[in-house]
Design goal:
minor pseudopilin epsh fold, 5-stranded antiparallel beta sheet, 30% strand
Length: 149
């Protein structure tokens, strides 16, 4: 009897199937990671805009406003500094009632003494959530994972 060299068709199909499953799992993992990175980048950008508005209030001695339109997903900070949220990212603003311009436009105001109206911005992309919180007493801006505690 002669020894056979190589792989059978069944062995080859099993390897190809395992490879396909591994690639599927990897692609899902990478796409979820990409959404998470985009969400973190958006949170950092909004946090930067909020910090910029706070710094301008301290330097100029005048109140400064950070405004976010949750419908258009665009924001404006001090000195007309602008930004927009990426596709698939939704936002909700938690702020003082007097800072609601319209049902979809809300602001967080920073005062010359460093304080603010307080509140925050919650960002979502799929199952991932980030929250940018503004302390009313100090105006300090914090970026946290997840939504409201």
């Amino acid at each position: 009897m002669r020894a056979q060299h190589g792989f059978s068709l069944l062995e080859t199909l099993v390897v190809v199937a395992l490879f396909a499953v591994a690639m599927g799992v990897l692609s899902v993992t990478l796409s979820g990671g990409l959404k998470g990175r985009q969400l973190r980048a958006a949170a950092q950008e909004i946090g930067s805009g909020l910090n910029f508005a706070r710094a301008r209030a301290l330097v100029t001695g005048q109140s400064q406003v950070f405004t976010l339109d949750v419908e258009s997903r665009e924001w404006v900070a001090a000195n007309n500094r602008r930004g927009a949220l990426g596709k698939g990212i939704t936002a909700e603003v938690i702020t003082a009632r007097q800072e609601l311009t319209t049902p979809t436009v809300a602001s967080i105001r920073f005062f010359p003494d460093g304080s603010a109206t307080g509140g925050g911005v919650e960002l979502r992309s799929g199952d991932a959530e980030m929250r940018i919180a503004v302390d009313w007493l100090t105006g300090r801006v914090r970026i946290e994972r997840g939504g409201r505690s």
